[in-house]
Amino acid sequence: MSRIRLLVVLLVAGALGVGLVAGPAQAAPRTWPRGTITYVDRSLDPDAVKLAVNAWNSSGLDIRFTKVSSARKARLIIQNTRKVPAGCGSGYGTLGYPGPGRRAYVSILHGTNAGGQGCAWPGQTQVVAHELGHVLGLEHYMRGCSLMNTSHINGVASSLCLSSKNPDDAKPGRWRCRLLEPIDLRRVKRLYGGKPVLREPEWCDAIERIPATGAVTPVVDQFGNTSLTITRAAEPAVPGWLGHWGYGQPGYEIHLTPAACTATPGDDATLVGVGLWEATPVGGTATEDIYSEMPPGPNCLTVWQFDQGNNFARVPTTVIIDGGAAGTGATRPAPRPAFRTPAKAFVI
């Protein structure tokens, strides 16, 4: 009986239930000898393959993927295929060392920008790294956040790595760039040894943040009413593979805090103004009236610009207003509508 097993995950319609297709019960997969796996990349996703390989090679584990120039020299073939169980964002791979004279395989579906994150390089990187985990001997893991979860959402993160406490993690253009989770490192260490380290931050942005909010000029009229003239700073371009997600509109938030500039973006408790740029060009201005009552003494108005994906600028612009001269209205604008990511499940 062959010791080669291919792990394939099936998506159950309407749910994230999965089934594992494998041969009869067999012994645990064997580890690779000498801690080195030579591979050749025959895929159309070289960036994803390179990033996935680098994640494993820089993990501190005593195992290494080494690229070679031809399939004749390779023990692992990484390739594209159309024979995947669930389309874009899925794949399969050989489980463990296939034995002397045999090759292992990683197969994923090649996608295009139109396929979204699941088929773009963030999602493809995750799929390749997952399948390389199978090649090392890891089976699926569903007791917590792991690269070896059986599915991922929108190419953003493995399904159990998304936290309900921070829904912004799943926004378009943001993904879990820490491919290898602590449990993955512990499991591979038991197979190969080493001193594993977590080198990557948990979350990354595909879109550069706006460096700084534009200039803000306050105006207090003869009746004590306050308005702000806000200049639109340039927003970094949205990558083509994110463009189809139906991003929201860019704009700005205004927050009011007494005495000190302590406001944080997205805090409804301090929000006193919100606006969308609409037809205002980069470098143009918009005027926002402040209707909320200001306490006597100095007050800080903090303006945070945000982009199409509700990502706030790295730096706000602040102005200090004397509350004794300000108006006394008490109307608070409705909070900016939250961006809703169309959740889509992929299996790996």
Can you walk me through this structure?
With 348 residues, the chain is α+β, with helices and mostly antiparallel strands. It is 11% helix and 26% strand. A seven-stranded mixed beta sheet has the order 2-1-6-7-5-3-4, with helices on one face. Strands 15-14-17-18 form a four-stranded antiparallel beta sheet, with no helix packed on it. Strands 9-8-19 form a three-stranded antiparallel beta sheet, with no helix packed on it. A hairpin with a 3-residue loop joins strand 8 and strand 9 (157-158). Helix 1 (46-57) packs across helix 2 (121-136). The radius of gyration is 25 Å and the shape is elongated. Mean pLDDT is 82; it is low at 1-26, 326-335 and 337-342.
Describe the sheet with the most strands.
7 strands, mixed
Beta strand count: 19
Strand order of the largest sheet: 2-1-6-7-5-3-4
Through-space gap between termini: 26 Å
Overall pLDDT metric: 82
Put the structure in a nutshell.
With 348 residues, this protein is of the alpha+beta class.
Layout of secondary structure:
Elements lengths: L5 E6 L6 E4 L14 E6 L4 H12 L6 E4 L8 E5 L10 E4 L9 E5 L12 H16 L14 E3 L3 E2 L15 E2 L6 H11 L11 E2 L10 E5 L5 E6 L19 E8 L12 E6 L8 E6 L7 E9 L10 E6 L22 E3 L1
Helix pairs in contact: 1-2
